[in-house]
Task: inverse folding
C-alpha cells in the first residue's frame, strides 16, 4: 500500500483535512525536541516522501521545501532543553506535537500521530506505530521536524558553543559529544536529566 493510500482510508470517513504529526530529537543529549504537523492535499502523492531516517540529509533538505510549497498547511514547533528537564522528554514531545497541531493555519479534522502514545491533542487522533513508513502525511511531518531541528542545531547551537562541535553530532550521544561534555562540562543547551552517567564519570575523572 502506498503511503497516500494509507491516508485515503481516513478520508473515506468524511475527514477532509487530515494532518500527520511526528517528532525529531527525542534522544539527543542537547537541544530542543521538535514536532511538525502537515496537511497535504487529498490528491497529492510524491514517492520520495518517506521516513526521514531513511533519507539522506541532502534529500531531506530538498523535500523540506517541496513539502512546504505543496502542503495546505504546516506548522513546526519545539520545546527547549530546559523545559525537557522540567517536564521530562515524553511530556515535552507531547507538548511540541500539541503546539504544532494547534499552530496549523487550517484546523485539522483528524490527526495521525507517529508512535504508540500521545495526549493533550484537542483534535481526534490515532497513533500509528511506524507511521512515518506508512502514512505520507506523517512522513512529511517527520521530514519537516528533522530538517528544522538539524538547521537549528547547525545555525544556532554550533556557532554559539563551538567547543562541542554540534554540527557534527547534532546533540546526539556520540563518542565525540560525550568527550566534549567530559572536557568542557554541560552548557545551558544540554538536557541535564540525560547526563547522569556522563557527569558521574566526569566527577570520577576530576
Result:
Amino acid at each position: 500500500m502506498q503511503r497516500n493510500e494509507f491516508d485515503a482510508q481516513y478520508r473515506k470517513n468524511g475527514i477532509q483535512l487530515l494532518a500527520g504529526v511526528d517528532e525529531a530529537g527525542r534522544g539527543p543529549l542537547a537541544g530542543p525536541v521538535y514536532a511538525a504537523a502537515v496537511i497535504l492535499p487529498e490528491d497529492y502523492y510524491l514517492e520520495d516522501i518517506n521516513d526521514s531516517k531513511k533519507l539522506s540529509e541532502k534529500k531531506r533538505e530538498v523535500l523540506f521545501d517541496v513539502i512546504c510549497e505543496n502542503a495546505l498547511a504546516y506548522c513546526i514547533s519545539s520545546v527547549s532543553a530546559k523545559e525537557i528537564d522540567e517536564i521530562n522528554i515524553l511530556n515535552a514531545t507531547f507538548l511540541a506535537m500539541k503546539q504544532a497541531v494547534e499552530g496549523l493555519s487550517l484546523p485539522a479534522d483528524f490527526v495521525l500521530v507517529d508512535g504508540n502514545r500521545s495526549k493533550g491533542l484537542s483534535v481526534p487522533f490515532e497513533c500509528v506505530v511506524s507511521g512515518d513508513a506508512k502514512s505520507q502525511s506523517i512522513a512529511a511531518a517527520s521530514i519537516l521536524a528533522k530538517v528544522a531541528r538539524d538547521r537549528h542545531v547547525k545555525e544556532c547551537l554550533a556557532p554559539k558553543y563551538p567547543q562541542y562541535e554540534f554540527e557534527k553530532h547534532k546533540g546526539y550521544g556520540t563518542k565525540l559529544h560525550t568527550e566534549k561534555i567530559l572536557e568542557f562540562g554541560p552548557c545551558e543547551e544540554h538536557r541535564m536529566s540525560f547526563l547522569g552517567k556522563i557527569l558521574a564519570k566526569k566527577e570520577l575523572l576530576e
